[in-house]
Design a protein that fits this description.
With about 210 residues, this protein is mainly alpha-helical. About 65% of the residues lie in helices and about 0% in strands.
Length: about 210
């Protein structure tokens, strides 16, 4: 019975409050905009909004536009859509868990209580390790490697969708030291926020 209840609990968290429903509404608008304006570069595309889970599709050599038989193309597109839906459900549920958190902690303990879900479970700790490795690899490539290439894509993907704020703020700074600091701090904070959301989700599913 507990295994049957958890999917229902996950769906309730993803749709049961204005915070998660607002996220799903923004995602729906982005999907419509993607088909209505295919040549526009909006930034908040469905893949970014459903990250980081949606980025797992980049690890596989197939997806939308895969050449081959019609059946293979349909399967590849279906796999990509499935990842987007799973990412949307997970992100909406995490936001729902955050919105439904208890506010009964004393004021002096609220910051500690807010950040505790980022480190008190294996799901969020594992995510933080991945995010830290991505940021560390980026800093190594930028500061020590003679050819950093596109190293910034790793922390951007690992801490999406909130990392879009970091790259938006650092972009106008011209790519100097200040831009590097803003992007690094921004992605680190984005990763911390994602870890808190994952921790809240893990707690909510255990109830």
């Amino acid at each position: 019975m507990p295994h049957a209840v958890r999917p229902r609990r996950l769906f309730t968290l993803a749709t049961g409050n204005w915070f998660s429903r607002g996220y799903l509404a923004v995602l729906a608008v982005s999907v419509v905009a993607m088909f209505a304006f295919p040549d526009a570069h909006v930034g908040l595309d469905p893949m970014m909004l459903t990250a980081p889970l949606s980025f797992l599709g980049m690890a596989f050599p197939f997806g939308p536009g895969t050449e081959g038989s019609p059946a293979g193309e349909v399967l590849a597109t279906g796999f990509w859509v499935g990842l987007l839906l799973l990412g949307a459900l997970g992100n909406a549920a995490a936001l729902g868990a955050l919105a439904s958190r208890s506010a009964g902690a004393p004021p002096r303990h609220r910051v500690r209580a807010l950040l505790a879900p980022a480190v008190d479970n294996w799901l969020s700790r594992g995510y933080l390790a991945v995010a830290a490795a991505a940021i560390g690899a980026f800093l190594y490539a930028v500061c020590l490697s003679p050819d950093p290439g596109f190293a910034g894509i790793w922390p951007l993907m690992a801490t999406a969708p909130l990392s879009i704020v970091a790259i938006t703020l650092s972009g106008p700074l011209g790519g100097g030291s200040l831009s590097l600091v803003v992007f690094t701090v921004g992605t680190a904070l984005a990763g911390l926020c994602n870890a808190v959301l994952l921790g809240r989700l893990a707690r909510a599913l255990r109830r």
